[in-house]
Specification:
Blueprint: H1 5-19, E1 26-30, H2 34-37, E2 45-48, E3 66-72, E4 75-81, H3 92-95, H4 97-105, E5 109-118, E6 127-137, H5 164-177, E7 181-189, H6 197-206, E8 210-212, H7 216-224, E9 228-238, H8 250-273
Parallel strand pairs: 1-4, 1-5, 5-9, 6-7, 7-8
Antiparallel strand pairs: 2-3, 3-4, 5-8, 6-9
Bound molecules: hypoxanthine.
Hypoxanthine binds near residues 115 and 237.
């Protein structure tokens, strides 16, 4: 197998290093709609993805494509504004390109955010949910293929994929900030069609509280590379069939993330101050 993945990553990492003022400590990945709510703080450095060689560019309207590097609450943060989804047609190596870049840059913590549908009947649209674990229903694993030995082991442990330490910090921060934070298992499905009510019923039986189309590949790759992960989801809508009278739309997802973005930002900034 002609495996040039490390070459691509090293080239991109080299360009990133030349543009970054300092090595970031924390990567913050912003999902659908949240990039807007996280208007970047003043100052810092913007790195559009198109300036990074080999970086896969996204196709979905409304997904920004850039990094922002700067200080948030005294910590050096690399903010990823937008992400590449598997449903767009990319291979897994492209979907997790930025996560591997984080590892090469020496980043030790990744905060992943996303939008999801609420399967758990006790959740409401707009709830912020701490991801405790995941179920991979993408039908693919980003680590399939020759192992990138420089990054991590062939068979990485996933017993604590969402760091218990970071989860405790997030729960404490939510308490201090008086932000309601639920907890649940996130199930990743391929998309891009939303699920049927029958699928949501099946996922509930499997133990899922949330359903979405992202994050899981990045979390697998982060764990492989020894990056500690915190996952926070905005449940933007009730999943299909949870409210039998409702239908789902991307517009609703975007609208809810806009509405809840400021609170999500406040929570994440409070977490960052504790890291
Ligand atoms: N299903 C899948 N992905 C999603 C949903 C959903 O209901 N809401 C936001 N992302």
């Amino acid at each position: 197998m002609n495996d040039n993945r490390m070459d691509r990553l090293n080239t991109a990492a080299q360009v990133m290093r030349s543009k970054l003022p300092a090595v970031p400590e924390i990567a913050l990945v912003l999902g659908s709609g949240l990039s807007e709510a996280f208007r970047t703080p003043d100052g810092g450095t913007r790195i559009p993805w198109k300036e990074i060689p080999a970086f896969p560019l996204p196709t979905v309207a409304g997904h920004a494509g850039e990094f922002w590097a700067g200080e948030i609450n005294g910590k050096r943060v690399l903010m990823q504004r937008g992400r590449t989804h598997f449903y767009e047609g990319y291979g897994m190596d492209d979907v997790v390109f930025s996560t591997r870049l984080f590892a090469l840059l020496g980043i030790k913590i990744m905060i992943a955010t996303n939008a999801s549908g609420a399967i758990n009947p006790e959740f409401n649209a707009g709830d912020l949910v701490l991801i405790t674990d995941h179920i991979n229903m993408l039908g693919e694993n980003p680590l399939r293929g020759p192992n990138l030995e420089q990054l991590g082991p062939r068979f990485p442990d996933m017993s604590a994929a969402y760091s218990p330490r970071l989860r405790a910090i997030a729960i404490a921060a939510a308490h201090t900030e008086q932000i309601a934070l639920k907890q649940g298992v996130y199930l990743a499905t391929l998309g891009p069609s939303y699920e049927t009510p029958a699928e949501i019923g099946a996922f509930r039986t499997l133990g899922a509280d949330l359903v979405g189309m992202s994050t899981v590949p990045e979390v697998i790759v982060a764990n492989h590379a020894g990056i500690e992960v915190l996952g926070i989801s905005c449940a933007t809508n009730l999943a299909a069939g949870v409210n039998p009278d409702a239908t789902l739309s991307h517009a609703e997802v975007i609208e809810t993330t806009r509405r809840k973005g400021a609170e999500m930002r406040r929570l994440i900034y409070a977490v960052i101050s504790q890291l």
